[in-house]
Amino acid sequence: MRKVYHRIIQMAGNVITVEADNVGYNELAEVRSANSVSLAQVIRLLDGKVYLQVFAGSRGISTGDQVRFLGHSMEVSSSGDLLGRIFNGRGVPRDNRPEVTDQLIEIGGPSVNPAKRVIPVNMIRTGIPMIDVFNTLVESQKIPIFSIAGEPYNQLLARIALQAEVDVIILGGMGLKYDDYLYFRNTLEDKGALSRTVMFIHTAADPIVECLLVPDMSLAVAEAYALEGKQVLVLLTDMTNFADALKEISITMEQIPSNRGYPGDLYSQLAARYEKAVDFDGAGSITVLAVTTMPGDDVTHPVPDNTGYITEGQFYLRGGRIEPFGSLSRLKQNVNAKTRSDHRTIMDTMIRLYADYKETVEKQSMGFQMSKWDNKLLKYGKLFEARMMDLSVNIPLEDALDLGWKTLAECFDREETGIKTDLLNEYWPK
Q1: Of the candidates 65, 75, 88, the residue with the CA atom closest to the CA atom of residue 16
Q2: Residue-range domains of the chain with CATH
């Protein structure tokens, strides 16, 4: 029987403090007032004092209310009944359907032992040429989408959720506008993808502590499904909102701030989530794709800066398109040789020529006379942007590679591409 404490010694915002013993970090507690019972989570232990973040806020709570610790941290079901369901950051249904309470597991566990991991070698197809051809998403990879407010990063995540060739999609939303939540829900439902999706959604109007729980909820369920042999893709948006929630709580706790007010353990907090990406030996896999918005388009901001040290590349989303320069999948070499013999050549050649096109555009803007070669590059650049960079393009990898050859043939002679003769003989359009 757990002890019940009857004295709250301090209240600061939505954080209450009691003196208690035998309590663990992240443990849950019930705060029972005259008219309600609120759930709270331990967020700090210091000198016999226990600090709890109240999920629903501290309004209506008085210093004489009862606090009873539950003896366990936040739990979530790992049942297959979660598929097609939508929950908030505490795992409470948002879809007006019954709660799922069987096969409960604790969230926020340790990352997987490296000895149990498999080297990533399998491609995840998305139907998006700028990913499949030029920055291949690899099974068990952890990679962010760097962007700024106003870019269609949530639309891009929804497309990936619809098209990615995986068994299960786990979508974790943090600080979402309600319109964005409805967009995800309606898009996945209308396109028939909700049946293989589990959604944990925290909106900007929800308690801030629930924002911190969304990645852990998502990754705990993903790990349970992966251990059953499923290929799971975890989509998270937006990790900057997650970091801002960490900052807000650390300020409430009067912790000494680090760079730009963020807590000193920001790197560890981010790494603890990203490192859950894994390909299990003899089971399934977890792949993590997470949006990170950059305030002021500043990649040196603490959140993207720390993220870059943890992840295996990044996608830059600018002007509604995935940028070919700056975007990088560090694991793409592991799969390029397994797709098609011309994959690496098409990738390298088209990016090289697109870089030449960008230089030609600068020359043209400065009034230089255009040569015959410059005109070929200008034609090529426009076709490349329309056929490869436009996010509305949805074609399989093989068709995208064929389209790459077609684009080269429409703009250049065979010998101008610098491609090896044996590949030209095999793939150059007749």
Answers
A1: 65
A2: 4-73 (2.40.10.170), 79-336 (3.40.50.12240), 340-427 (no CATH)
